[in-house]
From TrEMBL:
Cited PROSITE patterns: G_TR_1 (PS00301), G_TR_2 (PS51722)
NCBIfam families: lepA, small_GTP
Reaction(s) the record says it catalyses: GTP + H2O = GDP + phosphate + H(+)
Source organism (scientific name): Allosphingosinicella flava
Membrane topology: Peripheral membrane protein
Protein name: Elongation factor 4
A cellular component annotation (GO) from this entry: plasma membrane
Length: 602
């Protein structure tokens, strides 16, 4: 295809502002799907995405559009994942485009996440076309939103397209704006092949499918290609595009977006941002911007029923086939038995995987407290030199005497919130050891910038933020490196024995409050036994909080076993069932629910 007839664009939108609906509408208008096939949203193809209404994996479609000038164009819509956890993937999708539609809800206005993505888009030199969506809503205020786009983002919004993706208003204007405002790609057909790996996923029939954007050169079936970062070579066995149905093509040339398959079995070999080149005539340099993605939040996943361990192993392995960004290794816990220590890109990523395991694979799971990656500087000992280690699991914390210092990851967060909720949000950030960097007001809303330790955010920061602001606050963050902190490991002791699954790393200033909270929770969650059970939170040998579960009185049990035969049998059955769900810990039985509930902060 001629470069001048190609347009590559993405859609930037805050969650729920109508990205998927608009994408579907564009597909429909350009003839990709019939009315009947449109009945379900096409781009969000995973159930969980549909239910939670968020886009997780990027999908891309090629649209054929004959413009009002009579010319036929190919429009490649690159879908981008809509969450901060997937910021790197977003950056690669954006790098594959020349422009973007900025979709803003006419009733909600500009939100923090929109801002973050728009700035990224501007960094990629994109031409941005503002679209004000949902103008059919009675609460729509298109003029106010236009002013916001100009004041807050600094983009001219005079000729923003007013649209309703739901009722089909403004769709033709959007297509024309894509053709006339977004520049065509540049590229050299005669140069050595250079293509960017934008995304990949596992397909049971095709193997690993790789989404690419060709920069220079041509890619064809039968060609030997090389992944410059991974260092591997493959033979291309299929080249094509999604319209959105899969279609095989003879080749992909410069500026084009499409997919290839190359008999690759494992997604781990395909790294987002890698450069694909020709083996015989390789490009001189790889594309800039490649990054190795690293999990930042870790937690243990254990089966509630120990007999499910193998099933958990299989299910996790299967999930990993389609998501190379999450990691797992076997872990054993005295409290929870065998399970896996898993790493995720962020909390939402963690929740998605946990939910898929529960739902798609029908597993009952216990999740231990999420932890970030700490950097520990260790003193030298008689036999070992001083060294720096990364700690993913509080249970692996070395002897405190060995530790010179601990560093924790920090983030810079942007919070965007209506004025009236500002007070409580400032307090929340302050309570979480935040450092305020900036506070500005635009159009009756406050834009806050805070530096925060990531470990204060992974617990329940987002939930708290949402509940304090009744859902109006939006939140976005990126990591800004490690900083030294006064961090300690807090153990929870039940009947004088430490329960490993409940231990966590906390800032010394927060330890007492967290410890007290945890002890109070456990006191309510652990059933009474025939003896008194102390519950303690301790740092090293020092107890910082304590609760006691009183002993059960003998006559209470006696009463339980009285009564008629059926009732007795029923009780026994119930007890047996209850037993299965208990973890014997020393001489104390802790119900499964207690772990889950105790770990839920707030
Ligand atoms: P993510 O996939 O989470 O990023 O959300 P999204 O931005 O793709 O939003 P989606 O298209 O799923 O739309 C969110 C909700 O807004 C849905 O209930 C849509 O039906 C609704 N919606 C989308 N466009 C319009 C519109 O033009 N008018 C009205 N009234 N509702 C719309």
């Amino acid at each position: 295809t001629e470069l001048s007839k190609i347009r590559n664009f993405s859609i930037i939108a805050h969650i729920d502002h109508g990205k998927s609906t608009l994408a579907d509408r564009l597909i429909q208008r350009t003839g990709g799907l019939s009315e009947r096939e449109m009945s379900s949203q096409v781009l969000d193809n995973m159930d969980i995405e549909k239910e939670r209404g968020i886009t997780i994996k990027a999908q891309t479609v090629r649209l054929d559009y004959t413009a009002k000038d009579g010319q036929a164009y190919i429009l490649n819509l690159m879908d981008t994942p809509g969450h901060v956890d997937f910021a790197y993937e977003v950056s690669r999708s954006l790098a594959a485009c020349e422009g973007a539609l900025l979709v803003v809800d006419a009733a909600q206005g500009v939100e923090a996440q929109t801002l973050a993505n728009v700035y990224q888009s501007i960094e990629h030199d994109h031409e941005i076309v503002p679209v004000i969506n949902k103008i059919d809503l009675p609460a729509a205020e298109p003029d106010k939103v236009k002013a916001e786009i100009e004041d807050i983002i600094g983009l001219p919004a005079d000729d923003a397209v007013l649209a309703s993706a739901k009722s089909g208003i403004g769709i033709d204007e959007i297509l024309e704006a894509i053709v006339h405002k977004i520049p065509p790609p540049k590229g050299d057909r005669d140069a050595p092949l250079k293509a960017m790996l934008v995304d990949s996923w596992y397909d049971p029939y095709l193997g690993v499918v790789i989404l690419i954007r060709v920069i220079d050169g041509v890619i064809k079936k039968g060609q030997s290609i090389k992944f410059m970062q991974a260092g591997t070579q493959h033979l291309v066995d299929r080249v094509g595009a999604f319209r959105p149905k899969i279609e095989t093509l003879p080749e992909l040339g410069p500026g084009e977006v499409g997919f290839i398959t190359a008999q690759i079995k494992e997604i781990a070999q395909t790294r987002v941002g890698d450069t694909i080149t020709d083996v015989k005539r390789p490009a001189a340099e790889a594309l800039a911007g490649f990054k190795e993605v690293q999990p930042v939040v870790f937690c243990g996943l254990f089966p509630v029923d120990a007999a499910d361990f193998e099933k958990l192993r299989e299910s996790i392995s299967k999930l990993r086939l389609n998501d190379a960004s999450f990691s797992f290794e076997m872990e054993s816990s005295a409290a929870l038995g065998f399970g896996f220590r898993c790493g995720f890109l962020g909390l939402l990523h963690l929740e998605i995987i946990q939910e898929r395991l529960t739902r798609e694979y029908d597993l009952d799971l216990i999740t231990t407290a999420p932890s970030v990656v700490y950097r520990l500087h260790l003193r030298h000992t008689k036999d070992e030199a001083a060294k720096t280690i990364e700690l993913h699991n509080p249970a692996d914390m070395p002897d405190p005497n060995r530790i010179e210092s601990i560093e924790e990851p920090w983030i810079e967060a942007t919070i965007y919130v209506p004025d009236e909720y500002l007070g409580p949000i400032l307090k929340l950030c302050q309570d979480r050891r935040g450092i305020q960097k900036n506070l500005t007001y635009v159009a009756g809303r406050a834009q806050l910038t805070y530096e925060l330790p990531l470990n204060e955010v992974v617990f329940d920061f987002y939930d708290r933020l949402k509940s304090i602001s009744r859902g109006y606050a939006s939140f976005d963050y990126h990591q800004i490196g490690h900083r030294e902190g006064d961090l300690v490991k807090m153990n929870i002791l039940v009947n004088a024995e430490a329960v490993d699954a409940l231990s966590m790393i906390v800032h010394r200033s927060q330890a007492e409050a967290r410890g007290r909270h945890m002890c109070e929770r456990l006191k309510d969650l652990i059933p009474r036994h025939l003896f008194k059970i102390p519950i303690q939170a301790a740092i090293g040998g020092k107890v910082i909080a304590r609760e006691t579960i009183a002993a059960l009185r003998k006559d209470v049990t006696a009463k339980c076993y009285g009564g008629d035969a059926t009732r007795k049998r029923k009780l026994l059955e119930k007890q047996k069932e209850g037993k299965k769900r208990m973890r014997e810990y020393g001489s104390v039985s802790i119900p499964q629910e207690a772990f889950i509930a105790a770990l839920r902060m707030g």
